[in-house]
Amino acid sequence: MKVFKTYLSALARANRLGPDTEWLFYPAMLQDSPAKWWDDFAFRHALHEGIDICFYRTGPKRPVKFIQALKVPALADGTVLNVCDDFLGRTLVLEHQGFQDSPERIIFTYSHLAPAPGLEPGSRVERGEILARVFDTRLKRSKLPPHLHISCIELPRSIPLDQLNWKLFPRRDKVSLINPVFI
Ligand SMILES: [Zn+2]
Questions:
Q1: Ligand 1: distance of its center to the CA of 41 in Å?
Q2: 147 lies in which domain range?
Q3: Ligand 1 center to residue 97 CA distance, Å?
Q4: From the CA of 111, how far away is ligand 1's center (Å)?
């Protein structure tokens, strides 16, 4: 809980939203939700593999807003393991300091992004460094508002790094999802 909560504050700071920022989550934005939080609110094609971050307000009585080009900071020091496409934009797959000592590999995906130039497998990143902006979904005529998707995934170290992508991540027979809210 502490890591994720701290990250939400970092996200507000990186986007200069002010100290009273509160991020808002519809149930369908949370991990394992079967439902969409956009368009027809029908079922997703698979249970949600992480958490979607999009809406915020800057005080209890303020209107709910979202930012078209949300800046996405790194939640800790780390290394880029892979960069791959997702159904909206690109995904950065990172391994972070503090999550490297478990017998299985623990990775984080930051998805639906337009990554900063120069980030590639092997790149080192620092906590708070801006990795990307969220992908402008209007470019794909998507009904989804631009948003940041984060997954935390535990998987065998034997899986080659270039296979860490969205063919693999929904395979719950091969990987375990850790709910980011609880890290
Ligand atoms: Zn998502």
A1: 14
A2: 71-182
A3: 23
A4: 8
